[in-house]
Amino acid sequence: MAKINLTQFTDAGGCGCKISPGVLAEIIQTTKFKPDEKKLLVANYHNDDAAVFKISKSKALVFTDDFFTPIIDDPFSYGKIAACNALSDVYAMGASPFIALSILGWPVEKIPVQYAREVLEGAKSICDSVGVFLSGGHSINNPQPIFGLSVVGQIRPQYLKLNSTAKSADLVYLTKRLGTGVYSTALKLNKISGSDKKEMIKIMCSLNVLGIKIAKLGYVNAMTDVSGFGLFGHLIEICQASNLSADILFKNVQLLENARKYIENGIASAGGRRNWESYKSLIGKTDDFVRTILTDPQTNGGLLITIDQNHQNDFESFLNRNNLSDFSKPIAVLKTAGNGSELIALQ
Fold this sequence. Notes:
This protein is of the alpha+beta class. Helix content is about 35%, strand content about 20%. The strands form 2 sheets. Strands 1-2-3-6-4-5 form a 6-stranded mixed sheet, covered by helices on one side. The chain has a 6-stranded mixed sheet with strand order 8-10-7-11-9-12. Helix 9 crosses helix 10 (about 290-295).
């Protein structure tokens, strides 16, 4: 059987295939609602990563789903990455996932079913590694391959971390390097090196399970993950939900080693350009490179965390103990929102 490259069947892969923030806002404007704060603790009003329903004084259930088109040609790796990305929504709330269902769309007349089976096997390997039961799912015959998970987690309500709970003067940290959208575009164009491809896959297959521990730190005020809307987009969501603005300390933002090289050679994701068009009016002056890398869609990107500035040493020590010393400098500072439309400035 001739080898098939899954990315040949998609226009954009991974979280880069998401609908742009501006268009999405139009779609959901009539179905966006606030939680009742008694049972439904979190809904879609502040663009949080998951919905949360309280079932007792000490327990709440966390619900999410996430799926996308292939970002990598190997089906087993595609399944692993998609599973990590879906589980990240639960970890970003501070919760522990425990059960998942698969979401599969497959062009059965174009791609052998063996490939779909390998996608599921990749996802199951990730779920098994963290004790999540992959217990079934739903599939359709679809022109483009899509795969992801619907996940349920659990958490004590007092540990929930939301977009709307950040505070003025909070320091902001990010736990992964940026640039996977640029790298995946280079892969699709067959212009990526073997070592860069390996690094990209390693990052996207890295689980954000540390979110469970982070949520229990009392000085952590807000948390989300960086995915399809890029760093700019997800930081804007926190700022809008918490009525704040942010100064980004770009020198502290960690990037994939060759991200600049690819961008300077004209390689950039279409999703990043859509992101920029959606929220450019909210961002201060910046250059082409910074704009491209900070709008770059990340697939299973890092956790974006805001902390009380008085606990900077505590949190940076925590990161060091958890093998994240490269990410132990704040990448932004939050402040009270001004009167203008600009929410993000670059320092």
